[in-house]
Recover the amino acids of this structure.
DNA sequence: ACGTACACCTA
DNA sequence: GTAGGTGTACGTC
């Protein structure tokens, strides 16, 4: 280092605390990990590295280092035992960020320096003085007063948050003394935060005045007798020794042994892909784009690094990080410039590429020997504490909450099972230990009195008090299968699960369409092991037991096995996610949904039971009347609801000529067939009417009130995250995604979904989202233009196809075009379109031919999709989600054709599903940012629609937040070639809001 | 008690 | 023509 060089020294530890307190509202990653300080840190580093010259620093660095405290006792503690004794533990939010900031530093390819026994300030002081002696200039990135003693004409400080440089003049301005007197000033004033005693009654103003008068501390202490103020004089005399001690504490050491010499701090060029991978993993979108642009790399093509959360300076988790360790885009530098002897984290399989690791793991577990005899029951608090310590040590824990109901909103906790991972260095992942903690099991199964609480169990309170900090600890990764269940059940006991992976969702991302995602399926698929079934444990039907009634030994075997399997499956799938480049899909589209959907399910929605009960009565009366007419017309009584009996009446007894047959050879009595028969006889129409009335009654007006929760008085659906091939959600118990809307009778049911007093329901739905996605993926000029200009899309299609002007488009022609547009999305066939429009197959074929002539890009899209799915066995959405079609090469032509249509539909339906998932994942923070937390709450999702409950006074403010969040949901990952449009309305019930 | 077929509700 | 879930009837065990 020489004259003209400029060394930047960043006070990393100081920055964390300052950023934490200076940057409220907390920024969090989608999985709940707090990253506000990390975000500020990365932005600052990037700014300094790229345009320090344009800040008030005014120069470009030639050398650069980030300095951290080493979390152990320092020499100051030897001098003064109470040093920093007042420091409380750092806020919980901050703990995981210490490690992340070190990882950020490495990602920026900067030296990361810490030395045992010394604080960051001493290291900074040593480097600053050395550099200064070599003739270089130094800028210390910090605003900590403890560092101001280092300022000279060559050493400046820089407050990055205020963009303010601190030189000699600024120190004098602030403290009334020059930097050379800062040590004495601090020694007199003391520091309550660090527990530096100082002299009582002396503050900065007095100290500066005294130093001005006497020159320095030693002189002052010698001549203290000259001080006129009695109290002040007495204090100084009495505390002279304490002042000298304080000086030794505040004076920075400039002789710290340095692991890296000055030359090693020379600024190296950035490793663009490595940095982008890190920033993507942290979900810092803006900075990722900026860095990618500056480094000329394609951010979309780079997988996010897998980040290990450490707690401070002590390694907490095994670095189960195949991507970071192996993939070329995130490869660690050959020799990390880390001046610390003790490496943080153990890098599992660090020499292996993700694909190799995935293969090794898959092979190691494929023939799993699952030994249930190793499972243990935890009945003592000491034993539980041991397991908790184990989880804290390894940073990984598989967990399952067992309730006495399959509904997490209703059941009570019966027990919790845990699995730990030991010897995490092994390529296979390590050894797994599993345990079950029975908490509320009962005795005397089948006893009418219900039996009492079984002996020798920890209480729910005892166990949860211990487990809560662990389950909420962001540094410990929790693994589960279908974690939404445990999330909801635990939430009801005051525990909000944080930092988790869900193996069901991981498998869904890897294998949607290839089979079930139940734990049993995953176990068979990945481990070759058939686990105990629920029936094995609890029996079924009338004699089936709830879990709390199950014998503890049997419950233990079942519950402990589940977490054992979960841990194994995770070890297999985690590296596969990386090697298949599906980590982003999992992180952005799946994992955030666990908490989001759990919250929505927990909120539920109010239904008006009076409306439904009245409606039920009306429907019963009308159905009875229609039933009478039907029996009159048929000339006999029969079971109208039996298609078989109905077919016999219509096509046998009455001799009507049947239309279609079902696939089992029965006469079809579908609405479409009956509609056509209505022209020749009165009866078929009555059947259609009767079916509509009874359908609405049984499925909705009768069934819905049964779902009202006894305590909350609301209806809580359950969303299934992994049961469709395309990425859509589904809704069960009750299904709130198929509430009637098309008929007036049906809409009355929808109107029974109401807001609570003082609130309205807000419904926001995407307009034509699937056609917009089609216009984007197939890049159709006419569609793009129509959407850009806001022209009615079906009229435009009709105009293109039939040469009719858009203005004054006849309704029937538009209807046909609309059917064709839908047909396209569904993977059109002449057969299907003919059915839909009740026209000849040949005519439908003509329509399709003409459509493809007008929109050749769509035919190309379809052909390309078909050849892609034939080659790969799957198709992808615009965000990279995969839908698999293993039967695409079937020898059965109709099976093949069906799979082709599904494959054509999946990228369209799936991309739309991805978009609304992105909107949902962001919605909570978007509302919170607008100050609408708890005032506007997302309740339901119906594929292209979100329903909220909003305080009356906040509706006007809510609508734009919701609309914007939804319309911008594809950004920044995808810049859509057509705009997304969202319509939103508020009303007291769902019917009027929609 | 459980599984399947059919019909029909939604996007 | 795509993707779901639920209720009823009716078969089998």
């Amino acid at each position: 280092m020489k004259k003209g060089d400029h060394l930047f020294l960043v006070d990393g530890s100081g920055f964390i605390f300052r950023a934490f307190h200076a940057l409220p509202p907390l920024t969090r990653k989608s999985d709940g990990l707090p990253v506000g300080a990390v975000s500020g840190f990365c932005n600052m580093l990037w700014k300094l590295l790229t345009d320090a010259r344009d800040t008030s620093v005014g120069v470009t660095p030639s050398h650069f280092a980030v300095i951290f405290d080493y979390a152990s006792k320092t020499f100051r503690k030897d001098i003064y035992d109470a040093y920093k004794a007042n420091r409380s533990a750092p806020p919980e939010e901050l703990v995981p960020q210490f490690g992340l900031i070190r990882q950020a530093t490495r990602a920026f390819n900067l030296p990361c320096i810490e030395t045992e026994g010394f604080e960051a300030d001493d290291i900074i002081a040593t480097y600053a003085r050395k550099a200064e002696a070599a003739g270089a200039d130094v800028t210390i990135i910090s605003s900590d007063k403890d560092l101001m003693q280092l300022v000279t004409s060559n050493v400046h400080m820089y407050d990055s948050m205020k963009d303010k440089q601190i030189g000699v003049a600024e120190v004098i301005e602030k403290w009334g003394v020059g930097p050379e007197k800062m040590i004495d000033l601090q020694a007199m004033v003391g520091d309550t935060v660090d527990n530096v005693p100082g002299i009582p009654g002396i503050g900065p103003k007095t100290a500066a005045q005294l130093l001005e008068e006497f020159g320095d501390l030693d002189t002052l202490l010698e001549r203290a007798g000259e001080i006129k103020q009695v109290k002040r004089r007495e204090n100084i005399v009495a505390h002279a020794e304490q002042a000298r001690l304080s000086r030794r504490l505040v004076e920075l050491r400039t002789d710290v042994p340095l692991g890296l010499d000055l030359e090693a701090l020379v600024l190296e060029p950035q490793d663009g892909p490595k940095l982008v991978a890190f920033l993507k993993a942290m979900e810092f979108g803006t900075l990722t784009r900026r860095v990618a642009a500056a480094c000329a790399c394609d951010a979309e093509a780079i997988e996010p690094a897998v980040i290990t959360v450490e707690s401070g300076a002590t390694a907490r988790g095994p670095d189960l990080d195949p991507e970071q360790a192996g993939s070329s885009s995130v490869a660690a530098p050959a020799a990390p410039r880390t001046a610390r002897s003790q490496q943080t984290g153990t890098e599992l399989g660090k020499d292996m590429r993700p694909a190799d690791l995935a293969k090794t793991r898959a092979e190691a577990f494929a023939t799993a020997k699952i030994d249930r005899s190793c499972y243990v029951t935890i009945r003592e608090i000491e034993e539980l504490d041991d397991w908790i310590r184990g989880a804290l040590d390894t940073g990984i824990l598989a967990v399952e909450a067992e309730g006495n109901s399959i509904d997490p909103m209703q059941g009570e906790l019966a027990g919790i099972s845990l699995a730990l991972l030991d010897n995490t260095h092994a390529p296979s992942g390590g050894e797994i230990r599993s345990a079950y903690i029975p908490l509320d099991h009962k005795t005397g199964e089948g006893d009418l009195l219900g039996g009492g609480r079984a002996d020798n169990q920890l209480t729910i309170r005892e166990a949860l008090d211990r487990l809560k900090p662990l389950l909420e600890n962001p540094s410990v990764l929790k693994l589960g299968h279908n974690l939404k269940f445990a999330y909801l059940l635990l939430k009801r006991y005051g525990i909000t699960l944080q930092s988790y992976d869900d193996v069901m969702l991981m498998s869904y991302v890897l294998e949607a369409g290839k089979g079930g995602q139940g734990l049993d399926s995953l176990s068979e698929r990945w481990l070759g092991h058939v686990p105990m079934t629920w029936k094995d444990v609890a029996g079924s039907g009338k004699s089936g037991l709830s879990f709390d009634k199950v014998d503890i030994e049997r419950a233990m075997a079942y519950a402990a096995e589940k977490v054992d399997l979960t841990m194994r499956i995770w070890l297999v799938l985690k590296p596969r996610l990386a090697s298949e480049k599906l980590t982003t899909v999992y992180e952005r589209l799946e994992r955030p949904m666990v908490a989001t959907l759990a919250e929505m399910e927990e909120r539920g929605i109010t239904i008006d039971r009076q409306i439904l009960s009245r409606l039920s009565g009306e429907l019963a009366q009308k159905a009875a009347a229609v039933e009478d007419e039907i029996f009159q017309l048929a000339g006999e009584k029969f079971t109208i609801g039996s298609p078989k009996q109905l077919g016999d009446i219509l096509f046998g007894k009455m001799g009507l000529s049947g239309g279609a047959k079902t696939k089992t050879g029965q006469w079809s009595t579908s609405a479409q067939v009956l509609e056509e028969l209505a022209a020749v006889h009165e009866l078929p129409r009555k059947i259609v009417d009767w079916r509509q009335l009874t359908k609405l009654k049984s499925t909705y007006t009768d069934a819905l009130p049964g779902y009202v929760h006894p305590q909350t008085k609301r209806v809580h659906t359950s969303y299934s995250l992994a049961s469709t091939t395309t990425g859509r959600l589904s809704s069960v118990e009750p299904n709130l995604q198929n509430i009637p809307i098309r008929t007036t009778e049906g809409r009355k049911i929808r109107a029974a979904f109401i807001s609570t007093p003082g609130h309205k329901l807000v419904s926001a739905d995407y307009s034509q989202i699937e056609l917009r996605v089609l216009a984007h993926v197939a890049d159709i000029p006419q569609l793009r233009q129509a959407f850009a200009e806001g022209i009615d899309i079906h009229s435009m299609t009709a105009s293109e196809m039939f040469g009719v002007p858009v203005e004054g488009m006849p309704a029937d022609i538009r209807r046909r075009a609309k059917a064709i547009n839908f047909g396209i999305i569904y993977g059109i066939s002449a057969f299907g379109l003919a059915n839909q429009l009740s026209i000849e197959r040949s005519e439908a074929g003509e329509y399709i031919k003409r459509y493809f002539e007008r929109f050749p890009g769509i035919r190309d899209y379809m052909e390309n999709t078909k050849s892609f799915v034939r080659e790969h066995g799957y198709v992808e959405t615009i965000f990279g989600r995969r839908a698999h079609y293993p039967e695409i090469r079937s020898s059965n032509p109709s099976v093949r054709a069906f799979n082709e249509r599904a494959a054509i539909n999946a990228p369209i339906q799936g991309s739309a599903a991805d978009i609304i998932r992105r909107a949902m994942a962001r919605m909570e923070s978007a509302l919170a940012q607008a100050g609408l937390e708890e005032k506007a709450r997302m309740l339901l999702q119906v594929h292209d629609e979100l329903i909220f409950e909003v305080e009356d006074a906040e509706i006007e403010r809510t609508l734009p937040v919701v609309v914007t969040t939804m319309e911008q949901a594809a950004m920044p990952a995808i810049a859509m070639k057509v705009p997304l449009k969202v319509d939103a309305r508020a009303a007291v019930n769902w019917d009027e809001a929609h």
Notes: Residues 540-542, 641-644, 662-664, 666, 668-671, 691-692, 695-696, 699-700, 728, 735-742, 746, 765, 770, 909, 912, 942-945 of chain A lie near DNA strand B (CB under 10 Å from a C1'). Confidence is low (pLDDT under 50) at residues 310-336, 338-350 of chain A. The two ends of chain A are 69 Å apart (CA to CA).
